[in-house]
TrEMBL record:
Keywords: Membrane, Transmembrane, Transmembrane helix. It comes from Helianthus annuus (Common sunflower). It is found in: Membrane. Residues 3-139 form the NFD4 C-terminal domain. Its main location: membrane. It comes from the Eukaryota. It is a multi-pass membrane protein. This is MFS transporter superfamily. The chain crosses the membrane at residues 115-133. GO terms for cellular component: membrane. SUPFAM superfamilies: MFS general substrate transporter. Belongs to the major facilitator superfamily. Phosphate:H(+) symporter (TC 2.A.1.9) family. The lineage of its organism: Eukaryota, Viridiplantae, Streptophyta, Embryophyta, Tracheophyta. Pfam families: NFD4_C.
């Protein structure tokens, strides 16, 4: 899981530096990392917390997806997009008609968001390493120190 977080962080950082054609690479790599994450989470939950409360914990973890979507898309990404749109519309001399929506053009609209998400993925990696360090002795006792 930690490896997927590092790869996702690098992928988002690649988009944040505004590399040409990066959206295609970022989409594939980020989707693969999300898939790896959600494939690993059930095993990690059952291994760390046991099977007695697995159902409740897994249902709680499934709330992470809509909560993250609300926070990252609905607050962070849309806030930055709206900010960049206002900056672009202020520098644009054309006037908008009544029904026309403001639109942001270019990679600047999402590159800052990807930079923030890249940092958050690195923070998740650090937290994963802390969990690994804290459970290392337990697994050494259970399975031997190989």
């Amino acid at each position: 899981m930690a490896a997927a977080q590092v790869v996702m962080s690098c992928s988002l950082l690649y988009y944040a530096v505004r590399a040409p054609g990066a959206i295609y690479i970022v989409s594939v790599v980020t989707g693969s990392c999300y898939g790896a994450h959600w494939a690993i989470v059930p095993s990690a939950v059952s291994e760390l917390f046991g099977l007695n409360s697995f159902g409740a914990l897994y249902n709680f973890l499934t709330l992470a997806s809509p909560t993250g979507s609300l926070i990252f898309s609905g607050v962070i990404a849309s806030g930055i997009y709206d900010y960049e749109t206002k900056i672009q519309s202020a520098t644009n001399l054309n006037t908008l008609t009544d029904g026309e929506a403001l639109t942001c053009y270019g990679t600047i609209c999402y590159s800052n968001t990807c930079g923030i998400l890249s940092v958050l993925c690195l923070m998740a990696f650090v937290l994963s390493m802390i969990v690994l360090y804290r459970t290392k002795r337990v697994y050494a006792k259970l399975y031997g120190s190989s």
